[in-house]
């Protein structure tokens, strides 16, 4: 709710007809509750799932393949999004003004942009690695050391491409615009925005970001996975003959599962971030009225942000569904957590379950042994 004029209690006795007053909260209590619960859900999934992915890859040496090292980097970037961006974006979507300081304004923009850039560059690196292994199997394969060097380059490039945004992001105070709560208490309005010398520069930078961290990478990923699919499903007779043996069939199916998993991750990234990119392009190039921009900012942007952040929480579920090693790791962690809960119960409550606890521990040790093998 935005209006011009004076609040009900104008104790300063000053002319305020040129002042604008907006509601402190952008949404009603039921709508805000829905937003908060939705964001808490993906925050929980993001933290638990990606921490488990990091633990599984780092704990088990057998899991430290080139592809899994890249997946580890994806999990780290998703954790950064969940920790630094998700809570700040939620607060920004609930309150009319910017509720934090300028350092938070700059850091949230830099971390979110760099994390997303690192994610999409990592997806490209994974596609390239799979492309070389499957389409050109006799070429020299990427080593784990080379994968780590590639990841370092990815993060350096991601930070560099987001530096203009971090430099121009600033917090400004609107002297003629105030926020007002239900008790008619007024608060100064601060906004976090990119202060470009010329708005045309902002439009150019938006298009550079769109082409470099969405359009071009997604196009490359589609091309590479298309070539991979053609190689796997239209394989020459020699490959089909090899499938007649159990080992050949097992290798072939494992490659199919890995490609399906990675393709699903890339597809979910593309779909999850597309609405937000459409809104960003509409904001800069749509020549929309202030009322239309207000509708986008208040109602559409929160959902688009939620969908983009949802991508950071869904990846571990995809890994567990398609990859047996990740699935075993998740199951072992879950069973271990249940066992700890039972052990911490009072003795009077555990008197009849000691044998069950011992069996659970034996099952977990067996899981860990099978998993490491």
Automatic annotation (TrEMBL):
Receptor for NPAF (A-18-F-amide) and NPFF (F-8-F-amide) neuropeptides, also known as morphine-modulating peptides. Can also be activated by a variety of naturally occurring or synthetic FMRF-amide like ligands. This receptor mediates its action by association with G proteins that activate a phosphatidylinositol-calcium second messenger system. One of its GO terms (cellular component) is plasma membrane. The keyword Transmembrane helix applies. GO terms for biological process: cellular response to hormone stimulus. It is found in: Cell membrane. Its main location: membrane. Keywords: Cell membrane, Disulfide bond, G-protein coupled receptor, Glycoprotein, Membrane, Receptor, Transducer, Transmembrane, Transmembrane helix. The keyword Calcium does not apply. Belongs to the G-protein coupled receptor 1 family. This is Neuropeptide FF receptor 1. The gene is NPFFR1. Residues 49-319 form the G-protein coupled receptors family 1 profile domain. The chain crosses the membrane at residues 31-58, 70-90, 110-128, 148-171, 204-225, 258-283, 303-322. It is a multi-pass membrane protein. One of its GO terms (molecular function) is neuropeptide receptor activity.
């Amino acid at each position: 709710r935005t209006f011009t004029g004076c609040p009900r209690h104008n104790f300063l006795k000053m002319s305020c007809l040129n002042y604008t007053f907006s509601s402190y909260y952008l949404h009603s209590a039921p709508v805000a509750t829905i937003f908060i619960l939705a964001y808490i859900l993906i925050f929980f999934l993001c933290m638990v799932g990606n921490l488990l992915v990091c633990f599984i890859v780092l704990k088990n040496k057998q899991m430290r393949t080139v592809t899994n090292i890249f997946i580890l980097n994806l999990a780290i970037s998703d954790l950064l999004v969940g920790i630094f961006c998700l809570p700040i974006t939620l607060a920004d979507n609930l309150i009319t003004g910017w509720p934090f300081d300028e350092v938070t304004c700059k850091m949230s923009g830099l971390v979110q942009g760099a994390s997303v850039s690192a994610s999409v560059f990592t997806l490209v690196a994974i596609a390239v690695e799979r492309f070389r292994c499957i389409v050109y199997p006799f070429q020299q394969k990427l080593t784990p050391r080379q994968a780590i060097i590639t990841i370092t380059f990815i993060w350096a490039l991601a930070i560099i491409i987001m530096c203009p945004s971090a430099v121009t992001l600033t917090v400004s105070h609107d002297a003629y615009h105030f926020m007002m709560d239900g008790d008619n208490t007024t608060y100064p309005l601060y906004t976090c925005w990119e202060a470009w010398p010329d708005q045309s520069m902002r439009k150019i930078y938006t298009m550079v970001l769109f082409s470099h961290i969405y359009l071009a990478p997604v196009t490359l990923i589609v091309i590479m996975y298309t070539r991979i699919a053609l190689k796997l499903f239209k394989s020459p007779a020699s490959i089909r003959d090899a499938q007649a043996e159990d080992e050949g069939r097992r290798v072939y199916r494992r490659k199919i599962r890995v490609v399906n998993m990675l393709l699903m991750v890339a597809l979910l990234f593309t779909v999850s971030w597309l609405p937000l990119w459409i809104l960003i392009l509409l904001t800069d190039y749509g020549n929309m009225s202030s009322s239309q921009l207000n509708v986008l900012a208040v109602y559409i942007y929160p959902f688009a942000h939620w969908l983009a952040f949802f991508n950071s929480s869904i990846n571990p579920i995809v890994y567990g569904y398609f990859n047996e090693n990740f699935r075993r790791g998740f199951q072992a962690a879950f069973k271990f957590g249940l066992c700890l809960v039972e052990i911490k119960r009072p003795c009077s409550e555990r008197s009849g379950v000691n044998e069950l606890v011992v069996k659970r521990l034996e099952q977990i040790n067996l899981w860990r042994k099978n998993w490491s093998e």
